[in-house]
Amino acid sequence: MAHPQSAPTEEKAQATELKTVGQPVQRIDGWEKVTGAAKFADDLDFGPGLLHAFIIDSPHAHARIKGIDTRAAEKVRGVVKVVTGKDFPFRFGLYMKDRHVFAQESVRFVGEQVAAVIATDPKTAQRAAGLVKVDYEELEPILDPVKAFEQTSDLVHPDLGSYTHVPWFFPKAKTNVAHWRKIRKGRIEKGFAEADFVLEDSYRVPRYAHCAIEPHVAIGLFDASSRLTLWTASQSPYTQRHVMAEALSQLGLKHKDVRVVTPYVGGGFGGKAGVTMEILAAALATAVKGQPVKIMWSRAQEFRNTYMRLGLVNKIKLGVKKDGTITALKHTLYWDAGAYVEYAANVVNAVGLSSTGPYKVDNVEIDSICVYTNLSPGGPYRGFGYSEFFFGLESHMSKAAEKLGMDPVEFRRKNAIRENDTLPYGAEMNPNGLLEAIDKTAAAVEWGKKEESKDPNKAIGKSVVCFWKAPAMPPNASSSAFLKFNEDGSINILASGMEIGQGFLTAMAQIASEVLSVPVSQIRVETPDTDRNPYEWQTVASHVTWSCGNAVKKAALDAKEQILDLVVRALNLPKESLFLEDACVKSWARPGWQLPLKDFVISGIQVEDYTFKGGPIMGRGTFLPEFSSAISDPETGQGGHPNVHYTTVAGGVVIELDKETGKIKVLKAVLAVDVGQAINPSMIKGQITGGMLQGLATVLYEDMRYDEKGVLLNPSFSDYKIPTALDVPAEVIPIIVETAQPDGPFGARGMGEHTMIPAAAMIANAVHAATGLRINSMPLTAEKIALALKDKAKGS
Amino acid sequence: MKKIAIEFKLNGTQRQVEVEPSDTLLEALRERVGAKSPKCGCDRGDCGTCTVSFNGKTVRSCLVLAVEADGAEIVTLEGISKEPSKLQKEFAQRNAFQCGFCAPGIVMSATELLGKKKKPTREEIQEAIAGNLCRCTGYTPIVEAIEAAANGGK
Fold first, then answer.
1. Per CATH, the architecture of A47-139+216-296 is what?
2. Residue pLDDT, tens place only, A480-527
3. Which of the residues A28, A32, A35 would you substitute to probe the B interface, choosing the one with the greatest number of B C-beta atoms within 10 Å?
4. What would the CATH number be for the domain defined by A311-473+630-795?
5. Are A689 and B141 within 8 A, CB to CB?
6. Number of CB pairs < 8 Å for A and B?
7. B46 and A716 in contact by Cβ < 8 A?
8. pLDDT, tens digit, for every residue of A312-344?
9. What value of ipTM does the predicted structure carry?
10. CATH numbers and ranges of domains, chain B
């Protein structure tokens, strides 16, 4: 078993002769951020003409709008306009068009936008909004996904059957089921018949909020020439442009007329993907032509009216043989996807494809069901559904091992999926370092070594879990990049991946640096402006290092090719002898000779007759995974290739649990992730340290609490507690595994979301190890554990 | 609404502005004098990203009324950054921040701590920035950068 602190990335980089890729270089946006120079959307100035909008939202989870009286608000001095749903009867949505800009006849969640006041200053807008009278007829809210699944009347969306959607969704008209992803592989009954044990259980996961510290903000300007510009805090400038251009196409807008500018984003985690409140800025801008209008969400609105992590009830039935072989898995997932699922349904779809976990299972039946409820719209949250189902699945795997009397690490090793094994949907598994990740995690938590607390009231528990995640994307999600040289040989890279904190800009600079031998300090990568930077689908799914990284690498190779061709043409050197080193062209054929890039990448190379050859060097690169397909048999899920690859990971913890109070102290948290090739190990470690804490919070104390009418009870940081600097694990051990991804840039694959996914299962299994308790509903708060321990003591 | 004229020193420069009685110091700094480093993350004192120095002590500028700043001396991250500190260098070199939205508040809180205490313990550092929420980093790289600045600092 390898030593946990191995992963000598720098050494490896030397061995494979990589110079920049694999190095823990300083972030290129670091200095801007520590000096306050970095500008976020709310920091941009629009002058005294800027208007401000305040949104009137629904106090009811489910109600019919009987009437809206805006007259009093319109009379307030400083109010420019009051708009309601009738002003914008357009549908929109990313994967399914089930939303309107403003509520139409009914409201479907507390916080849904009903009307807006636009005024010359924010306080006037807010004051006037209080004068807008909305007359509601309250309806019974639908809050439980399992009940909603069975319901056939009083539906959340009576017109579901008429909605347009991507071809890989299967909504059921006249029900609350917006999508049902089925996987049928092998023969499930035969698999259970072969099993020596069959274990069944169900698990419940509440909703969670992203809690990026920067709230959503958007500024829209529909200028006098009818071009629409949006400045947004967004992970998805191009997707926003597309959705807005489509939604507002009745105004005659072409894509070229819509421009989205996204400065630095103050945390995304999926919450700023797609389009949520930004559609309001676009629509309201068209209502006040010629003047910019700004909308900024309050912290309470952040909790009510953006994407939320979906709630889940999942039922697992697992068949295992005495020797530890898994023979069958039936996994049924009821997702509380909220009032609009235009994005959430793809979370449900992604999980449906992958909820076997990283195990070789020959007989599989998965039903991942997207259910409408009268709660805030579900959507992407770091992990895209995987955190949710792995709580149950990895708890279940440990239970199975216990039932068999088998070591849970050995049980996982035995069933771990290998390269070329068949995936749940029929395609083959990619190369991966899952076993190495498991072994290194086990070593890091000193698995097998019995530990006891010095305090008799406290118990130590350990766990090791494993998991996987694939990017969830349309099969033709693409990336592109331009790379242009400057007069001094420095480089500007234009791409539209988003810097959301993960280090995207730096990773792209490192990739280009590696190809062109220009130092990272001489490369600038800017945040997107859709007028200037080329297309990128979205910065989600842990895919931009891989996908946009490929585009940037191709752009750099394109530039390199132009450079070498020019040198061949102008100086008549053999092309195969040329190479780039230290920002110069050099030749094996002419030792000692070198031509600095800065001498010719703009102005060309002067030849014998004093004329010049060449011109500005500009590279272009595009990437689209041409092997991917989302079309398969709807009844079995077999036939397509919906996922481009899986990143495999293992995680583990050592906890100390106070048996009286139930309070957990995380002594050690370990994550071993197969990143293919580390582009920047320092940034990877940063992702692990941060994502791990975000995950631990979801299992230790966070959750969104609603009353019986669907009203959120904790929409603030006072009541929805996120971790502070005092709440960190005593030790976090990040482990980098590198089994190259054949189609990744230098072998890299993504890992941003993966840092959060295992936390709940890690804690649940460690709590079991420490106390014998099995708690099947998240979060595992100290209170819940203390009460369960009391019950257990009474019972025994 | 009737405006009130106030005067304060911002990053060494005397400023006069007119504010409404209900304006917060955060609003006055961002909207009236263009000091954009203090951010609005919650507008109720929970997140700390609006932290500024007020007469030598850090405050959450969203919880201070602008009129209270009349005659005060205010320092924001812009003021500190005229001559970047050892602390800021450690933050940058160690890739301590990710999205950077919490950075202005954390740099202010950590600067105050190191001004008061040359060699703070790890717990004192954690305590000093416990009022500054960060969702990206898991805090450890930030705490380590502050420790390094203290150990290598003046």
1. Alpha-Beta Complex (3.90)
2. 999 999 999 999 999 999 999 999 999 999 999 999 999 999 999 999
3. A35
4. 3.30.365.10
5. yes
6. 170
7. yes
8. 999 999 999 999 999 999 999 999 999 999 999
9. 0.98
10. 4-79 (3.10.20.30), 84-152 (1.10.150.120)
